[in-house]
Design a protein that fits this description.
The complex is a heterodimer of chains A (296) and B (214). Chain A is an alpha/beta fold and 296 residues long. Helices cover 41% and strands 15% of the residues of chain A. Chain B contains 9 helices and 9 strands. In chain B, strands 3-2-4-5 form a 4-stranded parallel beta sheet, with helices on both faces. In chain B, strands 1-6-7 form a 3-stranded antiparallel beta sheet. Chain B has a two-stranded antiparallel ribbon with strand order 8-9. The chains are: A alpha/beta (296), B alpha/beta (214). The interface between A and B is medium-sized, with 35 and 31 residues.
């Protein structure tokens, strides 16, 4: 069985991915509802891996649910919580259970999450994890030992196009592609002129780029992200647009903005696709796709 | 090199001292004096506090360098007071505590936590500079150590938490990889940052680490 997501990336058509966040606990109803809502509308669904260093149900478990429900999962894998033996073991398990896509992340810092006393592992970084997967595909583990049955993954990574300063970020981006990243899901972008400039550079590299679209649900959220989330910059005109939405209509306005951005990115061919992050509001992702004219 | 220490909370010191009525306090004249955690003044203040808790302090001394071989000589000068104590309370880094614990069979109780190996940038401000990882990359990183200066110890460049040259965990901390980038850029040596750095080998000297100097 091949990665259907890799086929989608190769097809040259506009690719759409989205993501779900597993619950804190064993009640999987909400996550499964979101999976069912998205699985036939997008090319693949990411499952976050203790996002923001908040302990949750594992990405691997969410990916198995997506498989069982007929969707295409992308396993988010951070280097924060596992040493190289645990990372490799999870990759073997993922492959054996039909998971074919991995998004390699360094992982958020432990102190920003809800287990501040925990040890951050970071034995590998994202570049090293990508290389580890490529080595495992050659039939050898990181200890140089033969694997009885190798793995094969469509491997992705992330880039922050709005990082300041940008140059060090671009050097790391190039290292990720050299290591073997086939696709990139970017951190949230809002300024399409900035993004077009970033894409001019990115187009020189052999990698597919999916623009990160984070749904804005209020002017307050946009301002909060500007002040507190590294690498995110929401322009004032979008904040004003949200602020001027009719009472109770900010979410609708956010859906409209996200849909409009996706539409523009597609029509102007800015990138190879989009990755839509609704952060808890996954039920409106189909509305964003409809607003973008992408409804199936 | 300085071994940077911080005094434990008094409650924790008291907890460790349960069952010991008579104590001999040992300070250190090197690192713990510089960090003002185990010099003459701190030893004398500790003595008063312990007496206030009802402990009997049989004596005290500040050994020039608690971790070296002269420690036993320094202790011999206080043989009587030590003989009549139930234990040592050690106000030095963990190296001194271990030295004392191996001296004469008396328990050695740490009054300090050993935090890191660091330098004093400005009076009273100590910064970690080396993790003693056994795999020095300073030649590729313009002399700035990413293993200690980057919160995550990353070797291949900044993470997504880099924030206008600061670290996502604390707006007052520099992003190590921004500093490395700027210095390498100035030197015209950015090719070093483009080089792939493999994962660190945690087995260069297996723990517990030992080495023999020829």
């Amino acid at each position: 069985m091949k990665s259907s997501f890799r086929e989608a990336l190769k097809s040259g058509r506009f690719v759409v991915t989205s993501e779900v966040g597993p619950p804190k606990g064993t009640n999987l109803e909400g996550m499964r509802h979101h999976i069912d809502l998205l699985k036939d509308k997008v090319d693949a669904i990411n499952v976050t891996d203790h996002q923001s260093s908040v302990m949750r149900f594992p990405s691997l478990g969410g990916c198995l649910d997506i498989r069982e429900r007929g969707g295409e999962p992308i396993l988010q894998m951070t280097c924060r919580d596992r040493n190289q033996m645990a990372l490799q073991a999870d990759l073997l398990f993922a492959y054996a259970r039909g998971i074919r896509n991995v998004l390699c992340l360094t992982g958020d810092a432990v102190p920003i999450g809800d287990h501040k006393q925990a040890k951050g592992v970071f034995e590998f970084d994202s570049v090293q994890l990508i290389r580890a997967i490529r080595q495992m595909e050659s039939g050898k583990d990181m200890g140089g030992n033969e694997l009885d049955g190798a793995v094969e993954f469509c491997v992705g990574a992330i880039v922050t196009p709005e990082a300041k300063p940008l140059e060090p970020q671009l050097i790391k981006f190039e290292k990720k592609v050299e290591a073997g990243a086939e696709f990139i899901q970017t951190q949230a972008i809002y300024d399409l002129e900035n993004f077009a400039r970033f894409m001019k550079h990115a187009r020189q590299l052999p990698v597919k780029i999916l623009a990160g679209i984070v749904l804005l649900v209020s002017a307050k959220m946009a301002k909060y992200m500007n002040e507190n989330v590294p690498g995110i910059s929401v322009p004032q005109n979008l904040i004003d647009e949200l602020a001027h939405a009719p009472k109770g209509g900010a979410l609708l306005k956010g859906v409209e903005i996200a849909g409009r951005m996706v539409k523009t990115i597609k029509e102007e061919g800015l990138s190879d696709g989009v990755h839509i992050m609704a952060i808890g509001k996954e039920n409106v992702v189909p509305d964003i796709l409809a607003a973008a004219g992408l409804a199936a | 090199m300085k071994s940077i220490t911080r005094q434990k909370p008094l409650e924790e010191i008291a907890e460790q001292l349960q069952g010991f009525g008579r104590l001999f306090i040992v300070g250190c004249g090197t690192c713990a004096t510089m960090t003002r955690t185990g010099g003459k003044e701190e030893v004398s203040a500790m003595k008063e506090r312990l007496q206030g808790m009802g402990k009997m302090v049989t004596g005290s001394t500040v050994i020039p360098t608690a971790c070296d071989t002269m420690t036993e000589v320094a202790l011999a000068e206080n043989a009587g007071a030590i003989q009549s104590a139930d234990c040592f309370l050690v106000m030095s880094c963990a190296m001194g505590v271990q030295k004392l614990a191996s001296c004469n069979g008396k328990p050695a109780i740490p009054a300090l936590d050993t935090l890191f190996i660091g330098v004093e940038d400005s009076p009273g401000y100590f910064r970690e500079v080396c993790d003693q990882c056994g795999h020095c990359v300073l030649g590729y990183t313009a002399g700035i150590c990413p293993v200690t200066a980057c919160h995550k110890g990353l070797l291949n460049g900044p993470c997504g938490g880099t924030n206008n040259g600061r670290c996502e965990i604390d707006k007052n901390r520099d992003c190590a990889w921004t500093l490395i980038y700027e210095r390498l850029n100035k030197m015209g040596r950015l090719d070093l940052m483009r080089r792939y750095q493999p994962p660190r080998n945690s087995q260069i000297v297996p723990r517990p680490r030992v080495t023999r100097v020829a």
